[in-house]
Amino acid sequence: MSSAPMCPIDKSLNDSLSTLLQSFCQQVYEYRRGGSASGKPQSSSNAPGSVADHQKKLDEECDILELVRDFVLRATPACTAERVAALRNRRNELSPIYRLPTELLALAFEFAVCDEATPVPSRSRQRPVVVDLSHVSQRWRHVSVSTPKLWTNICDSAQPFLDLFIARSKTASLTVTYTSGSFTGIAPDGSMYSIAAITHFDAVNAAGFLPLLAPHIDRCRSLTLQELRPGGFERFLLAPAPRLEVFHAELNNDCAMELDTFISLHTFFGGQTPLLRDLLLQGVYQPLTSPIYRNLTRLRLSYVHYQFFSIHHMLAALANCPSMEELALSRVAFSHMIDQSASLSETHIHLSHLRRLELGHLETPIMHDIFTFVSFPPFLQLNVTLFGDGKDIRSIFPLPVDFHALPSIAFTRHLKLEILGSTLWRIQGRAHDLSDTSFNLMNDSTGAPVEDIFSAVERDLPILSEIESLALKGILDSSLSVPSFVRFLRRVPTITSLTLESCSPSFVNTLVERSYSLCPLLTELVIKAADVTNASLMDVVASRTTAPNYPASATSPTDLPTPTSASFAAEITLLRKLEISQCRFITEPTVRALKRLSVDVIWDPTPIPRRPTISELTRIVASAPPILLGDRDPLEADLDLSYHDFHF
């Protein structure tokens, strides 16, 4: 079988290789024959020898050839690899990114590292970005290693490289985030763990992580510890933290809900945190007399039981934070054994910089004391979540209520009232469209009947007479009578905009001008997800765009007279805008007729999304792929199954 013909370049290289190998063999042969001191080989006898001598010589030549072959096989990759690496480095240096100054390249690396600091559940990394950057090229490695700032963000993926980050960050301030629950893999016992399933495994890892970090606490600018368990981390947080500005410590949710299970005997950082401004403690106890509560601008406490302190100690701590901008207290309890005679009646706390106040699941006396002894600025965002039967607005504010001391309520011009389920309610208010001043009051437990809720709003919110827009959601005539609805609307005569979402159609019918004379200044009406009929909607709009004495038999725009009397214009403001969405009984001919009434009509015929039946849900679950431990049920991702008060 003949071999394939060689191309010219192969033939040339083959000839050169033969010559090169022959030269190598000659050098080895001469070396073995031995030479003089100058290295020249000795002359050999040309006399013919025996057959054995010729065989010995041939064996020697084979041995030399194999030796040369092995040498070439070893030396060629090393020589070529070094040369190729040098050529590739030179080529890379000619690419655009290598022309960037070192400062710009380091800045680009900083952006990559900052992006990694934002947790994304779908993105899990085995190594930190900066570690990967340091393994791309010599220049990238030099830039990354010589830029300490790139090594200051110690997040979950950086924990196995903690010593490396500590060393390369030199003396720069550290941002440390330990968030157990962001890994996905196999625990030492062989069980699967993922984002929502980590408990004991990473809690144990925290005990190994914190001892390595403890000697460098003095370098931490921000320290976030989550999914902790009591008794395993406090002793590593005793050293002073002169650079610490942000400290978040959160117990595992199961532990945090047990308010009486854990009281730390340690004062964090020895009380030496002169720069601390942002403090979050969930289920983590620190005495209210600790210096850690001083000069804060952001304080969030949840699931903490101060067994040896009262609300007055909390207020005293707030008095030490005159620049407070955000305050959130959720499920915070105080001891009732403290002498309540130690009153702050002679002291009033002014939090003039407070932007946001969140109170959730607090006892009524606690909220009353807060609103009694603390003065709030006019631009406050107020969120209050009640819990317990029979709780209403009076459970929040002490009587008599002076809303002039609460500008976020006193300045309200836009009000929304929602009924969530049968008895859960939420009231939201906002000063005006471009303002951050707002309030949000909510009861997420079994509350009062809807009739009582509306009565309480009428009784306790004197601002109703100045409201400009009103939105009602989830109000049904089975829980609120039509007369009660009419009485409530008469308390808001100044509204120019009214939204009825998921409300009974009987409430829409009350807006016919000749029926109850409600909302005389109304110029905008929004109806969403209501079973209002074509006839009733036509009746409402026609009564507010024509004279109030139009014929009762008028069923189309051609039957309606044009308003001409001056008395009519003085009695009622004409409706200018109508929005209809997800109203299944409204048809296109009715919409066309409404548009001829000199009103701007916006119609969205999209039907209300139908809820799946039990059998459909069962079929979906049965056909779904198996879910790994800790993964969220896909059905829960689309269904809001619970009410949350705060998002710490």
UniProtKB/TrEMBL annotation:
InterPro entries assigned: LRR_dom_sf
Source superkingdom: Eukaryota
Gene3D superfamilies listed in its UniProt record: Ribonuclease Inhibitor (3.80.10.10)
Name of the featured protein: F-box domain-containing protein
Organism whose genome encodes this protein: Botryobasidium botryosum (strain FD-172 SS1)
